[in-house]
Design a protein that fits this description.
The complex is a heterodimer.
Chain A lengths: L4 H11 L5 H19 L22 E2 L9 H5 L10 E4 L5
Chain B lengths: L3 E12 L36 E2 H13 L3 E2 L2 E2 L2 E4 L9 E4 L6 E2 L2 E6 L2 E14 L3 E3 L6 E5 L6 E7 L6 H18 L11 E11 L9 E6 L2 H20 L7 E6 L4 E7 L9 E2 L6 E2 L2 H9 L5 H11 L4 H7 L3 H13 L3 H18 L11 H12 L5 H14 L5 H7 L8 H14 L1 H8 L6 H11 L6 H12 L1
Parallel strand pairs in B: 14-15
Antiparallel strand pairs in B: 1-12, 1-13, 3-7, 4-18, 5-6, 5-17, 7-9, 8-9, 9-12, 10-11, 13-14, 15-16
The chains are: A mainly alpha, B alpha+beta.
Chain lengths: 96, 478
């Protein structure tokens, strides 16, 4: 995979981050290094090995349909960067 | 007649009627004050883990069994990644690769016929919170009560050909969800909504045209308008030599128009991957059997019985299957009684309106089955006329459900006289008192029969059997 500025811009868009030109240059280098490291894994023959998604063998872990452990509104909004006491306030996502 | 055929596929979202959320134990009731139904999982606090609501799995399987889907024995959950404030985790938990139900079909009743709509798959997912954009000039407001609400998404094959069929499927879906007791199917409260995929092709052409998806239609009126607008737009574009571009559209109810939300090129990149927080779900025999046992009679099955076995008209059969309780009640009563027409009339004209007026199920009717069957027998044996039975005896029975129905009729003097001697006497009196009108009748003014019958009904206090009385009156008038 080619790591170039276009890819960095796409990743910025997807992660809602904005880098400076300087940071972008560094990021291209870092990502290339990361990919090179991960590429090492391709040297191992994984023919016939199922992908490992889960770290445990557990299956069918369910919850009963009960209401509990709810937070009060005050608690829910406590860490919000901005709130009016009822809602989370976020930058306008739709321009009118 | 247009030379283009409309091709429609739906993605239907059904909100399940659980108490708590899909992967967290917050309340999911509708209409709570903003941000009062959240918890650390819905708010995506670090270190918290989701855990599947058992009911959500069960409801999904029940729906799949009802429509003959294959139930996937091994289920995984995937993360659909997107950054938007209505889901603080930055992803929605869904099933991308291995949906719970594969295939199946839903029969819909449209324009007097049943048509089967094939289902591509059904998957389990969670809803996002609600963003409000028009209350504050500087900010969007976010309410996370809905974030994490359990949903099923039902994806159809492109088998629908008109807005009528879309309406029939949405109505059928609501009905089925209520039969299965998995959702209230209430479109006003957002428990049932759909994305509509629309394309056109010239009649006779095999290949589909490029499709456009109209997002989030939460009423049939809007869905109809959106389809109509979109079909016209695509035909105009094609006719003028253009090509329909695959895209996602928004429908604006205020203008009745669709507008571009995303084109194919800038489609969202959701970077799906398996959610390691949720262990796989294996649907074993025990889980399957439990849901099989919960399957009620299904709307199209009940229709078949009403129309084939009990020989009722399609129109009546459709009315009887509208709600599960009505269908079950009717099937049961017809099984025991022997006058299906009279039973269906009683249910449609009296019992259904009663349950609507009292906003309760027909099964809560205070009158016992035997009493209802006796009531019908009185009509059948012409001991009480149809109109007297419906207008007078039924209200009395509602007030005195325990009094044997025949006793009630006798006590209130409702047994009709089909004693012709009595009737003849009354008719003779009427003829004697109205000689002028009798002459006019005999000279061809046949419309006067109504007048004579009115007199007779009054004289007999409404208890004359109308059929017998009518016949006698015509004979006497000569």
């Amino acid at each position: 995979m080619k790591i170039d500025k276009d890819l960095i811009l796409k990743l910025e868009h997807l992660s809602k981050l904005q880098l400076t030109e300087e940071e972008r240059k560094n990021m291209i280098g870092d990502l290339n290094n990361i990919l090179k490291m991960v590429d090492k894994l391709n040297e191992i023959d994984t023919e016939g090995v199922e992908p490992l998604t889960y770290m445990t063998e557990a299956v069918n872990v369910f919850r009963e349909d009960e209401i509990k452990n709810q937070l009060s509104r005050e608690e829910a909004l406590k860490n919000a960067p901005k709130t009016d006491g009822k809602f989370f306030q976020v930058p306008k996502v739709i321009k009118k | 007649m247009s030379k283009y055929e409309t091709i429609i596929g739906l993605e239907i979202h059904v909100q399940l009627s659980t108490k708590s959320k899909a992967f967290a134990s917050d309340d999911v009731k509708f209409g709570g004050a903003p941000n009062t139904q959240t918890g650390v999982i819905s708010l995506a606090h670090p270190g918290t883990l989701p855990k599947l609501n058992k009911k959500q799995l069960e409801y999904a399987i029940r729906l799949g069994l009802a429509i003959d889907s294959k139930i996937n024995p091994k289920n995984y959950f995937d993360r659909k990644n997107y950054n938007y404030p209505d889901l603080p985790k930055g992803y929605q938990i869904t099933q991308d690769k291995e949906p719970i139900c594969i295939g199946g079909e839903i029969p819909i009743y449209v324009k007097g016929e049943w048509k089967k709509i094939r289902i591509h798959h059904i998957h389990i997912e969670e809803d996002a919170g609600k963003s409000i954009h028009d209350q504050n000039p500087n900010f969007s407001l976010v309410d996370l009560n809905r974030a994490g609400t359990p949903l099923l998404e039902i994806v159809t094959e492109p088998d629908l050909r008109s807005a009528d069929e879309v309406e029939a499927l949405m109505g059928g879906m609501r009905q089925l969800a209520r039969y299965l007791d998995i959702s209230d199917g209430n479109m006003q409260e957002g428990s049932l909504r759909c994305d509509v995929n629309i394309s056109i092709r010239p009649f006779g052409q095999e290949e589909f045209g490029n499709r456009c998806e109209v997002k989030n239609l939460n009423s049939m009126k809007f869905a109809r308008k959106a389809i109509q607008y979109e079909v016209n737009r695509q035909i105009k574009l094609t006719e003028s030599g253009g090509e329909v571009q695959q895209q996602t559209l928004n429908f604006d109810p205020a203008t009745g128009k669709t507008s571009t939300l995303r084109t194919k090129e800038n489609a969202n990149d959701y970077r799906y991957f398996p959610d390691p927080d949720l262990p796989p779900v294996v649907v074993n025999k025990e889980i399957l059997e439990k849901q099989k046992a919960k399957l009620p009679v299904l709307p199209w099955e009940a229709f078949e019985v009403f129309s084939k076995k009990y020989q009722l008209s399609d129109d009546k059969a459709i009315q009887l299957i509208s709600e599960k309780s009505t269908a079950e009640f009717s099937l049961n009563l017809m099984e025991k009684g022997n006058s299906n027409k009279a039973i269906s009339n009683l249910i449609i004209q009296k019992l259904k309106p009663w349950s609507q007026e009292n906003s309760c199920s027909i099964s809560e009717l205070p009158i016992s089955e035997n009493q209802l069957l006796d009531f019908i027998e009185l009509i059948d044996n012409q001991l009480v006329s149809n109109s007297i039975a419906y207008e007078r005896l039924f209200p009395l029975l509602l007030e005195n459900p325990k009094t044997p129905v025949k006793e009630l009729a006798e006590r209130n003097d409702l047994i009709q006289s089909s004693d012709t001697g009595e009737l003849e006497k009354l008719i003779d009196e009427i003829i004697a008192q109205n000689q002028g009108k009798v002459k006019a009748y005999q000279n061809g003014k046949k419309g006067l029969l109504g007048f004579f019958m009115g007199q007779l009904m009054r004289a007999s206090k409404g208890q004359a059997d109308p059929k017998v009385a009518n016949k006698l009156m015509i004979e006497k008038l000569g």
